[in-house]
Amino acid sequence: MQHQVTRSVLAFVPDALSASQVGTWTTDVINDRTVCDAAAAALFGVDPNLAAEGLPLAAYARVIHPDDRAGFHDKLNRVREHGGLFVVEYRAFPAPGDRRWVLARGRYERDDRTGGMTGRGIVIDITESKLDGRAEDRAFFIAEEDTETPLERAAACAIQTRQAIDEFDGPEGLGLRRSVDALLLALGRALARRVGASEP
């Protein structure tokens, strides 16, 4: 099945943006277009309207800490080429003097019809959790084979739920987004803890 790039409803609501720690993204690898919601755009310091239309990966990666950038590209390129799941942490500077720790979780799949690779996932602002002296502990996980755990399946379903809610125009939308963001944040942290515990 071909995945359509989801264009989130990005009504820019400043208080919702500042409160949100979870953003969603969808990538078309062949065309190098990554579409993000407003929360993800804020984590990378990009205009939310441009992010809603789709930007090249370089527009987001430019704010990644120089010491993390090469490793980020190396790991991401591997999963973008072969497909599969990944969890990775890195530092980002969305604005001068504003350092953020970001946890990214996603899955890349090849379209059987076009042969193109598409990805979707979440980015989570985990800066507060790094203030307890655990800044050097980083989650990193790539699985090229299809070995999703129940926790990973739950995260995938929550990502799809969030993207569907972004397309919902009703007055309940903001409350629903906050609820699913809380679930995504909890799932992302659980995945990071699980990966960290499994590393040697």
TrEMBL record:
InterPro entries: PAS, PAS-like_dom_sf, PAS_fold_3
Superkingdom, natural source: Bacteria
Pfam families xrefs: PAS_3
SUPFAM superfamilies, per database record: PYP-like sensor domain (PAS domain)
Domain PAS fold-3: 35-112
Protein name: Diguanylate cyclase
Native source species: Methylobacterium platani JCM 14648
Classification lineage: Bacteria, Pseudomonadati, Pseudomonadota, Alphaproteobacteria, Hyphomicrobiales
